[in-house]
Amino acid sequence: MKKVFTLLFILTVTISIAQESAVLRLNYEKGDIYLMKMNMNQNMGEGVMSMDMMMHMSVEVKDVNNDVFDTEVKFSKVVMNMEQAGMKMTYDSNTKEEDMDAVAKQMHTQFGPMLKMVVGTKTNTLGEVLEMKVIEGTGDISQFANQAQSVTYPKEKITVGYSWSDKKEQNGMTMTYIYTVKSIGADKIVLGLSGTINGAAAGTLSGSLNIDRKLGIASETSIKMSMDVTGQKVISTIDFTMEKV
Questions:
Q1: Which residues contact 134 (CB under 8 A, 6 or more apart)?
Q2: What is the tens place of the pLDDT at every residue in 78-121?
Q3: How far apart are the first and last CA of the chain?
Q4: Among candidates 122, 121, 119, 167, which has minimal Cα distance to 140?
Q5: Other CB atoms closer than 10 Å to residue 191's CB: what's the count?
């Protein structure tokens, strides 16, 4: 009889774990401030071009209205190390302009205005960016749209093994992201990532995301892209972290 009860207990636990579900939603609150850090590495082959870039951004929740979040994004730090055809280039936004070399000063003309920008976004609880505009400063924000919209959540409940897809357009490329739920824990939900790249480049992407279950943010994101761009193989890795401060 004891064995029967033990077996029933194991089955009950197994079934409850298998049926565990969750709803993915952003849970920003007015006044929240988040720090987002991005590290990107891109390699086009030995002797061709390699680049390491780090960027820090702050995200402040200015208002919450009918499940729409008004946030302001500011770029606080950019560090880039690039090597192309034997030439090395380094840029650090924390360096005083008078202490920069000629190459860094040239790069500062591109990054300087961005560091003075304040970008306003409207995002819903599914993580969809409804609106994005420059509030202060000047610059092209189209390249930051996909970073702001890291993942769009499904409307329905998710369980382990559940998958959904999302498409994004950037620089003439169509990137199809396929998210698969790997695990659901008390504090975080782990997603696996796979997908394809088509258009100006062709290739595949893979990675993983850790979703903070309480806040609904992607606290850790890792993406690897392997592409063919006009016959040149390009490998990019991008790592994001996001934390409440």
A1: 117, 118, 119, 120, 141
A2: 999 998 877 888 999 999 999 999 989 998 998 888 899 999 99
A3: 54
A4: 119
A5: 24
pLDDT in tens, 117-134: 999 999 999 999 899 999
Instruction: Give the tokens for residue 232.
Output: 């040149």
DSSP 201: S
Give the whole-angstrom CA distance, residue 69 versus residue 76. 22
DSSP code string of 101-138: -HHHHHHHHHHHHHHT-EEEEEEETT--EEEEEEEES-
**Model's pTM, two decimal places?**
0.85
3-class secondary-structure state, position 51: strand
Look at residues 71, 83, 5 and name the one whose alpha carbon lies nearest to residue 41.
Answer: 83
Closest CA to 181 of 165, 162, 167, 206: 162
Residue 28 pLDDT > 90: yes
